[in-house]
Amino acid sequence: MFRISHFIRELDHPTPVAPRRNPPGPVVIWNLIRRCNLTCKHCYSISADSDFPGELSTADVFRVMDDLKAFRVPVLILSGGEPLLRADIFDIARHAKAMGFYVGLSSNGTLINGSNIDAIVDTGFDYVGVSLDGIGATHDKFRRLDGAFDASMSGIRLCHARGIKVGVRYTMTEDNAHDLSALLRLVEDEGIDKFYFSHLNYAGRGNKHRADDARHQTTRDAMDLLFETCLDLHRRGIDKEFVTGNNDADGVYLLHWVTRRFPERAAHIRAKLVQWGGNASGVNVANIDNLGIVHPDTMWWHVPLGKVRERPFSEIWSDVSNPLMAGLKRHPRVLGGRCGACRHLDICNGSSRVRAQQITGDAWAEDPGCYLSDEEIGLSAAECRGERVVTTPFVSPRRTA
Ligand SMILES: C[S@@+](CC[C@H](N)C(=O)[O-])C[C@H]1O[C@@H](n2cnc3c(N)ncnc32)[C@H](O)[C@@H]1O
Ligand code: SF4
């Protein structure tokens, strides 16, 4: 996850650069149920409104939580499918809160209504994230349900009115990119606390429909708009979080934007971006699916690492006998193609490895989702022709008059 707003704040209020440190345990995104009332075109969990047998019981979940706590996992994001379809969702979330986890709810928002808002408030979720993949009909088409947008908006407003920190999650493809600016206006008008921009990842139905992925120029325009919007709000004293997911090249793109807009800050922002360190799948982000199978992150459901019913999560996560886990945990990662030659690999860490693996079969090949030009990744003309690459450290551009 890439926190745009964190770096935008650094432009006006720079803070000291510290060495890169990993948190004590990974953030765990936990798909507690696969059932869903929607069947979104891009859904990595291939969810649908049917029963998926073999899911973890409440007792299983509580037992796993003990291990996660002992392993110093700080954050649980309760997700699905649609987590509100799990009858014990509030018991699970309350238990997690009582154990001291930061607990987020990741919902499509359509089922948040007058009958459960008190329970959502009383549970004390630290954050509720609701997906909005466009405005009105765009969202309904993407999520394949007429009326989904109105229902999700109603859920967002209920949460907001009750003082819950609420965010909007938007996954962009070529089909809904035209609604980004309207969504950003909506976020401001509705007083929504956070905007999470997700790039499409090639998992589940998102892989099947990967031809719909945003063109590189569409992504670049979207990033420019996000950076400018975040800066504008910040300078108007409106404090919101802007984050992106599924493409850590965003950090490098931000560096180039800063170099153009605030050249005097480029060296500082670069140092801060290196401190962040890019993609954290398999290291600081983990996933447990509805059957209790552990994956390096939510987009790796096609790679099982082990089952929490058979081995503790802590053991599965620390085991690097799986070559994917060993490679993800290497720092710097050993990558091929443009990623291997990139001068900014220390910022992005090779981004999500899923797209490379789905397209080429090689998890360490270049990320086809990297939308940076050869010049932006520091390739010389000779390197672009495939000759041997020798990288040199980044040199901050001189301040221009
Ligand atoms: C699987 S959903 C579960 C929570 C809830 N049902 C929802 O839709 O928000 C979690 C988030 O992942 C996003 N997502 C699903 N498949 C994706 C993909 N292939 N690439 C990027 N994001 C994806 C969804 O849009 C949603 O914001
Ligand atoms: S993305 Fe969320 S709402 Fe859509 S089908 Fe998947 S789990 Fe359901």
TrEMBL record:
Its cofactor is [4Fe-4S] cluster. It comes from the Bacteria. The keyword Cytoplasm does not apply. Residues 22-236 form the Radical SAM core domain. Keywords: 4Fe-4S, Iron, Iron-sulfur, Metal-binding, S-adenosyl-L-methionine. Coiled coil: none annotated. SUPFAM superfamilies: Radical SAM enzymes. InterPro entries: Aldolase_TIM, Heme_synthase-like, HemeD1_Synth_NirJ, PqqE-like, Radical_SAM_PqqE_MftC-like, rSAM, rSAM_sf. PANTHER family: PQQA PEPTIDE CYCLASE (PTHR11228:SF7), RADICAL SAM DOMAIN PROTEIN (PTHR11228). This is Heme d1 biosynthesis radical SAM protein NirJ. It comes from Aromatoleum diolicum.
